[in-house]
Automatic annotation (TrEMBL):
Residues 92-122 are annotated as: Disordered. It is a multi-pass membrane protein. Its EC number is 2.5.1.141. It is an enzyme of class 2 (transferase). It comes from the Eukaryota. Its main location: mitochondrion. Belongs to the UbiA prenyltransferase family. GO terms for molecular function: protoheme IX farnesyltransferase activity. It catalyses: heme b + (2E,6E)-farnesyl diphosphate + H2O = Fe(II)-heme o + diphosphate. It is found in: Mitochondrion membrane. Residues 96-108 have a biased composition (Basic and acidic residues). This is Protoheme IX farnesyltransferase, mitochondrial.
Length: 437
């Protein structure tokens, strides 16, 4: 077939040469089907240029009218917009001429309206120097200090102060709450880092957006932290002031850099959240005893189902920001730890009457809400989806205030403990009288 094809497309002079060449190839090696196709393509391109494949020029894609012009290299490349000129023709009638005039006017108005929009969009894409106005400063500082998180910290401190088995001192309570709030504002202001701009949850923070300069943020943190620690140390007691200073150091110098280094940052952050109720207890009693450690343990365990469930829905954000979280690097451990500490809340609630902090009604009344959050923790551990994590997170928001309220209503009063102490001292006195001759 190849020989007949050559006979048709080439002259008689080239037939013997091509036949000898094919015969040599056949003698040297076996001609396969692939090699036959290769020879066919080679001879087609050599002896018949019209049959060879030619590259078809790619047609330019029509640019969308809604897409903005992109200027990649303004110094080397200049883009001119060429308008299509309609052919000159005589109007057929007065109606058609009026119609054409209307179309030309509308096109001109549209062009005039599109041009400033494009200019504005080009200006919006450029970096602008944000000017700080005094009217916006209180709102910016409130978002810088994370006012909602600060309110939660102050509420847990107040709960620790109220749970202390001592008479209530209003002045000490106000000083402890104010000092703890100022210390929390200082820690939250320093906690913001430039990597927060990669996360959707934190990219609107004032320091990340450039609404406030880092120097002003540090000055604001110092103006909150120094008076706060001074109030706790001088107005309350040195132990509470030392705990407040240690918490600022732990939050800013340990927890913040560890977020990009190790998943141990979650445990360090749980310690930071457990210290405020301990500060409330020490502010009222001036000592660090079993009641303060129990309150700190409850806050420590509560934070794991709360934060692990929150971080589960933000895994993409944390991975985009480069943060080492359990939900990103160790998802199985994240779910196990959340369930483990949900069950730990039941044990800590049972330990409260054993340590003579509450009555035995507290573990009984708190059992339903502890079982419910444990059930949601088990669902989160089993299903590992966004629905179960959201339910666990929203349950943790009302679980902690409810648990602290029940604990406050079931606490042992100061008079009961004083009567019990007097009774023990009286029995001890009688025993001493009996022993005396």
């Amino acid at each position: 077939g190849l020989f007949v094809w050559h006979l048709k497309n080439t002259g008689i002079r080239q037939i013997p040469c091509q036949f000898v060449h094919l015969w040599r190839v056949a003698n040297d090696r076996l001609i396969t089907f692939q090699y036959f196709n290769f020879l066919k393509r080679m001879y087609v391109t050599q002896y018949n240029k019209d049959l060879s494949q030619r590259a078809k020029p790619k047609s330019d894609s029509v640019a969308s009218p809604f897409r903005e012009f992109q200027q990649l290299d303004q110094d080397k490349k200049i883009i001119h917009e060429i308008r299509q000129i309609s052919p000159v023709h005589h109007p057929l009638s007065e109606t058609s001429s009026r119609k054409e005039l209307r179309e030309m006017k509308s096109a001109a108005e549209t062009e005039d309206s599109v041009t400033p929009v494009r200019a504005e969009s080009k200006d919006d894409r450029q970096w602008k120097e944000m000017k700080l106005r005094l009217d916006d400063l209180p709102g910016i500082l409130a978002r810088l200090s994370k006012i909602k998180l600060t309110a939660l910290v102050v509420s847990t401190t107040s709960a620790g102060f109220a749970m202390a088995p001592v008479p209530f001192d209003l002045t000490c309570f106000l000083l402890a709450s104010l000092g703890t709030g100022l210390a929390s504002c200082a820690a939250n202001s320093i906690n913001q880092v430039p990597f927060d701009s990669n996360m959707n949850r934190t990219k609107t923070r004032p320091l990340v957006r450039g609404q406030i300069s880092p120097l002003l943020a540090v000055c604001f943190a110092a103006s909150c932290g120094v008076p706060g620690i001074a109030l706790l140390t001088l107005g309350v007691n040195p132990l509470t002031g030392a705990l407040g200073a240690f918490n600022i150091f732990l939050y800013t110098c340990c927890y913040t850099p560890m977020k990009r280094m190790s998943i141990a940052n979650t445990w360090v952050g749980a310690v930071v959240g457990a210290i405020p109720p301990v500060m409330g207890w020490t502010a009222a009693t001036g000592s660090l005893d079993a009641g303060a450690l129990l309150l700190g343990g409850i806050l420590y365990s509560w934070q794991f189902p709360h934060f692990n469930a929150l971080s589960w829905g933000l895994r993409e954000d944390y991975s985009r920001g480069g943060y080492c979280m359990m939900s990103v690097t160790h998802p199985g451990l994240c779910r196990r730890v959340a369930l483990r500490h949900c069950l730990a809340l039941i044990g800590l609630s049972t330990a409260a009457p054993v340590l003579d902090i509450t009555t035995w009604t507290f573990p009984i009344i708190s059992l339903p809400i502890n079982l419910y959050i444990s059930y949601l923790g088990f669902r989160f551990y089993r299903d590992a989806d966004r629905s179960s994590s959201r339910k666990l997170f929203f349950c943790s928001l009302w679980h902690l205030p409810m648990l602290l309220l029940v604990m406050f209503t079931c606490k042992k009063s100061f008079l009961e403990k004083e009567d019990k102490g007097d009774l023990l001292s009286g029995n001890h006195g009688r025993a001493m009288e009996i022993r005396l001759p």
